[in-house]
Amino acid sequence: MFENLDFAAEVGAALWLAGPNGSGKSSLLRLMAGLLEPAHGTITWNGEAITTDREAHRARLRYLGHLDAVKPHLSVEENLRFWAEYWDAPRSGVAPALERVGLARLHDAAGRRLSAGQRRRLALARLLLAPVSLWLLDEPTAALDSEGIALFTTLVTECRAQGGIVVFSSHDVLAVPEMRQLTLAGLA
Questions:
Q1: CATH code for 14-67+74-183?
Q2: What pLDDT, in 10s, does the model give residues 74-125?
Q3: pLDDT tens-digit map of 7-54
Q4: How far apart are CA 169 and CA 181, in angstroms?
Q5: How many angstroms separate the CA atoms of 112 and 72, rounded?
Q6: Region label for 176, one of left (φ > 0), alpha (ψ between -120 and 50) or beta (otherwise)
Q7: Could you give the CA distance from residue 143 to residue 136 in angstroms, rounded to a whole number?
Q8: Residue ranges of the domains in the chain?
Q9: Residue 68 CB neighbours (<10 A)
Q10: Alpha-carbon distance 138 to 154, whole Å?
Q11: Which residues pair with 75 in a beta bridge?
Q12: Mean pLDDT of all residues in the chain?
């Protein structure tokens, strides 16, 4: 899918993966997350292949796919608590994260009752549970209203200010300050 693809993202960087449907944006994010193996080439973190220590790589990143991974039978709070436990993050961060993304009033609502935008906000709340070095986000603003998109931009700015790297795909042109763009052309 990719030929001669070579890029780097430094501490504090925001990298926007752009390109048409089928150009490989989601696949590249999955490769960077270690969920797929490259057929050729190497993906590195500080000069070391991410496959050298898979657990260390998983611990330094948060990957949000284009699907929100909301369990329909769990409440909003239970959904977020699940991720806190999965990542061994403090449960005390759940309520503040829900407040930050505007879902505190829905803490006891079942996941199946959420709108698409609310599900996306719940996915974004996962990023707030514990700081990590790398966010890999597939269409993070899909279904968000203008307020939700502004929240996303703020979260990205805050992550970068703390030394994090954010790589995201989007069909939307987002107002992320000083972001770099990598355009994927896809298969000819």
A1: 3.40.50.300
A2: 999 999 999 999 999 999 999 999 999 999 999 999 999 999 999 999 999 9
A3: 999 999 999 999 999 999 999 999 999 999 998 999 999 999 999 999
A4: 10
A5: 4
A6: beta
A7: 18
A8: 14-67+74-183
A9: 20
A10: 17
A11: 110
A12: 94
